[in-house]
Amino acid sequence: MLMLIILNQDKPSQVIYNFMDSKGLDNWYVVDDRVMGGLSKGNVKLTETGNAIYFGDVTTENNGGFSLLRYQFHSIDVSNFNKIAIKLKGDGTPYQFRIKSDKRQRFSYVSNFKTFGNWETIIIPLNKFTPQFRGRKVNVQNFKEDKIEEIAFLIGNKIKESFKLEIKSITLIK
After folding, report:
1. Half-sphere exposure of residue 152, counting CA atoms within 13 Å on the CB side?
2. Could you tell me which residues come within 8 angstroms of residue 26 by beta carbon, excluding any fewer than 6 positions away?
3. Is the N or the C terminus of the chain less surrounded, counting Cβ atoms within 10 Å?
4. Helix, strand, coil percent values for the chain (each to nearest 5)
């Protein structure tokens, strides 16, 4: 379920990444289906206002169909938080937001969301992230970890499409 809210500044929060504050794209990487022979192409760049734009084209040719924007970092303790808030502007396309408690684990915890073409705050409860590997649910409980080491945005709607997602910040909240 998608929730739009204004963040309460009185509640505890921890910024995972704010593009305007960081002034860069260090440790952000695009991984396309090309690693498996596909032909999709994603890119990321900073806007003049300091946000990130993740954009490109996804194609199902050569058994392709996805592009992923990934950020890995040292462990962040999430035990005092129960949601992630993502400030973004989408293009009306469905995406996935993914987290990993250990960047070496093969599966990700996944939450799907749809964008509506304007600035919005996507709120995702941590316990609603489901474990998946290559689009299939794995036999692990929903996210109940006390740390995260990777976040990612994925587009993979099994159709040929262009995409554009502008991202301002990703924050842990209570």
Report:
1. 24
2. none
3. N
4. 10, 50, 40
Question: What is the pLDDT, as a whole number, of residue 35?
Answer: 85
d(CA 65, CA 38): 7
Rounded Cα–Cα distance for residues 14 and 76 (Å): 9
Q: Can you tell me whether residue 40 is helix, strand or coil?
A: coil
Give me the amino acid identity at 107: F
- Residue 41 phi, psi dihedral angles, 5° rounding: -145, 110
Alpha carbons 136 and 130: distance in angstroms, whole number: 10
Given pLDDT bands bounded at 50, 70 and 90, which one contains residue 2?
A: very low
- State residue 11's pLDDT score: 67
Burial class (CB in 10 A: 0-12, 13-18, 19+), 2: middle
Residue spans of beta strands (DSSP E) within 35-107: 41-46, 52-58, 67-77, 83-89, 94-100
pLDDT of residue 63 exceeding 80, the answer is yes
State which amino acid sits at residue 165.
Answer: L
Q: Which pLDDT value is given to residue 24?
A: 87
Structure tokens belonging to residue 105: 């684990």
Find all residues with CB under 8 Å of 60, minimum gap 6, and list them: 38, 158, 159, 160
